Amino acid sequence: MPRRANTNRLLVPGAAAVVNQFKEEIAAEFGVNLGSDTTSRANGSVGGEITKRFVTQAQNELKQ
Q1: Residue 45 burial by Cβ neighbours in a 10 Å radius (0-12, 13-18, 19+)
Q2: Torsion of the alpha carbons at 25, 57, 55 and 47, rounded to the nearest 10
Q3: Do residues 63 and 55 lie in contact, with contact meaning Cβ atoms separated by under 8 Å?
Q4: At what angle do helices 40-63 and 15-30 cross, to 10 degrees?
Q5: In 6-30, which positions are buried (b, 16+ CB within 10 angstroms) versus exposed (e)?
Q6: What is the distance between the terminal CA atoms of the chain, rounded to a whole angstrom?
Q7: What's 2's DSSP letter?
Q8: Closest residue by Cα to residue 35 from 43, 23, 27, 24
C-alpha cells in the first residue's frame, strides 16, 4: 500500500522541532526507542502520552 503524503500544516513555524523534542523526551521516560524496529504499541504509547499532556496543558491554560 503506498504511503500518503503528510497533509498536516503547521500553524506555528518551528513547532515541529518542539514536538519532536517533546516526543524524544517522552520516549526516553518510557524507555522506548522510536522507529521501525519498535512495536507499534510502544510507538503509540508515546503518541498517546503526547496527546494526553497537550490536552492537560490546554485545559490548565483555559482555567486561568
Answers
A1: middle
A2: 0
A3: no
A4: 120
A5: eeeeeeeeeeeeeeeeebeebbeee
A6: 46
A7: P
A8: 43
Which grid coordinates belong to 15? 513547532
Render 3-59 in DSSP notation, one character per residue.
PPPP-PPPSSTTHHHHHHHHHHHHHHHHT---STTS-HHHHHHHHHHHHHHHHHHHH
**12-48 pLDDT, tens digit each:** 888 889 889 999 999 999 999 988 898 999 999 999 9
For residue 2, pLDDT beyond 80? no
Tell me which residue of 37, 34, 14 sits closest to 24, measured CA to CA. 34
Cell 504499541 found at: 41
